[in-house]
Amino acid sequence: MSTPSNRPHIPTWEEATGLPSTMNIDTERGVATSISEDAPTGIRLQKVMAAAGVASRRVAENMIAEGRVAVNGKIVIEPGMRVDPEVDEVTVDGTPVQVDTSKRYIMLNKPTGVVSSMKDENGRPDLTQFAREYDERLFNVGRLDAETSGLLLLTNDGDAAHVLAHPSFGVTKTYIAKVRGKVTAQTASKLTTGFDLDDGFIQADKARVLSSANDGSSSLVEITLHSGRNRIVRRMMAEVGHPVIELVRRQFGPLHLGTLGLGQMRELTKLEVGQLLGLARPDAAAAAGEGAGENE
User: Fold this and answer.
1) What per-residue confidence (pLDDT) applies to 16?
2) Catalytic residue among 135, 145, 196, 283
C-alpha cells in the first residue's frame, strides 16, 4: 500500500491567482492581458512552450511571470494566454521558439554529384534520396551546384525558406575552396576589396588563406560572402587566377556543418532553429542587404 506524499500541493498559476486562463494582447500597453473565459481559443502558452521543449509547464509559467516571453512582439505578463502555434510567434529572451512542432528543419551535408532539386528532369541523382526518410514533404533552401558539397538546409517551412533564399535577404555563406596554385595574402585582399565580373561588381565579406601545398600546386582558401550569384565562388577564384578544384560550403547563416559526415543528415537543435527563425522574421528580411541568392 502506497503512502501519501508529504510534499505540499503547489498550486498552478490559475489556482493561486484566481484569474482567468485566457488572455488578449493590449496593443496600447504592449503587454498581454486577461480576457473572458467565454471565448477560449488556441492552446495555453505554457503548454505550447512545454511541447516545444523550452521548459516544463511550471518553469514556463515562471519565465512568463518574469517577463521573458513575448507573443507576436508583445511581452506576456500573465501565464495562461492562448496562442495558435501555426500563426503566433513566441520568443523567449528575444530568441524565437519553434511552437509549430509540425515544422522540420534538417541539415544535410550534400555530396558532390547530387543536384539541388527534389526531382531532376534529366534523371541525375537528386535530393529525394535524403528527403524520403521523412514523412513530411521537404524541400531545399537555396542550392549548391552538383560539383559543390556541404551544408544544405531541408525544411517544410515554406515561409522561412522563402525569406532565407530570397535574393534581397543577404544570408552569409562560408566556403572552403581547394584551388590551383599558391594564393597570397595580396590575392585574399583583392577578394575582399572586390572587382568587376561580367554580371557586375563583386566582393567577399571575408577571405583568408588556410594553407598551401609545399610545392605551391594548390591552396585552401576560406571565403565568406552574402552574394549568391550562380557559381560565384568558382568565378571569383578563376578571376584572380586560382581555379577551384574542390568546394565545400561549411556555413549557412548561423548554421555550421561541424562534424556532420558527407551524405549524412541531422535535425537542427532548438537553439539553431531559434537562430534561423530569428533571421527569417519579415522585419529582419526587410532590413537585410541586397545580393543573396539561391545557388553557389
Assistant:
1) 47
2) 145
C-alpha cell at 232: 560565384
* Average pLDDT, integer, range 203-229: 94
Instruction: Provide the whole-model pTM.
Output: 0.75
Please return the burial class of 145, using the count of CB atoms within 10 Å of its CB with bins 0-12, 13-18 and 19+.
Answer: middle
What is the residue extent of each domain of the chain? 13-97, 105-287
pLDDT single digits (tens) 148-170:
999 999 999 988 888 888 766 77
26 is catalytic: no
For residue 264, what are the contacts with CB-CB under 8 A and spacing of at least 6? 108, 109
Assess whether pLDDT exceeds 70 at residue 23.
Answer: no
| Whether the predicted pLDDT of 205 surpasses 80 | yes
Q: Distance (Å, rounded) from C-alpha 34 to C-alpha 222?
A: 53
> What stretch of H or E contains 160?
helix 158-165
Distance of CA 136 to the CA centre of its chain: 18
- The CATH architecture assigned to 105-287 reads 2-Layer Sandwich (3.30)
Query: What does the chain come to in residues?
Result: 296
In CATH, which of 3.90.950.20, 3.10.290.10, 3.50.50.60, 3.40.50.460 is domain 13-97?
3.10.290.10
64 with 71: CB under 8 angstroms?
no
